[in-house]
């Protein structure tokens, strides 16, 4: 759902021409990167819409870390990290 919300935000708000999506995984961790070249926003201003609130809430519910990096006129990047502990994988 975080991935879907990130894409919805890009479609609705970013005016992006390019979107890069990368997923990296190993036995201990999975990382999702979603970056666009859109209009971005000032992260210091607290005008988080429902989409960003949903992303942050869902990440917390699944014990994950989410970083939202953005600058006005320089795009946005969302990085989601889920670390698996004690999976017993050798």
Would you write up a description of this structure?
The protein is α+β, with helices and mostly antiparallel strands and 90 residues long. The protein contains two helices and four strands, in the order αββαββ. The chain has helices at 2-14, 50-61; strands at 19-25, 29-36, 65-71, 75-83. A four-stranded antiparallel sheet has the order 1-2-4-3, covered by helices on one side. A hairpin with a 3-residue loop joins strand 1 and strand 2 (29-36).
Sum up the overall morphology in one term.
globular
Catalogue the unreliable spans.
none
Q: Averaged pLDDT, please?
A: 91
Tally the beta strands: 4
Relative strand content: 25-35%
Instruction: Provide a count of the helices.
Output: 2
Residues in helix, %: 25-40%
Instruction: Indicate the structural class.
Output: alpha+beta
SSE succession: HEEHEE
Oligomeric state of shown chains: single chain
Largest β sheet strand count, sense and barrel closure: 4 strands, antiparallel
Radius of gyration (CA) equals: 14 Å
Distance between the termini: 30 Å
Q: Could you give the order of strands across the largest sheet?
A: 1-2-4-3
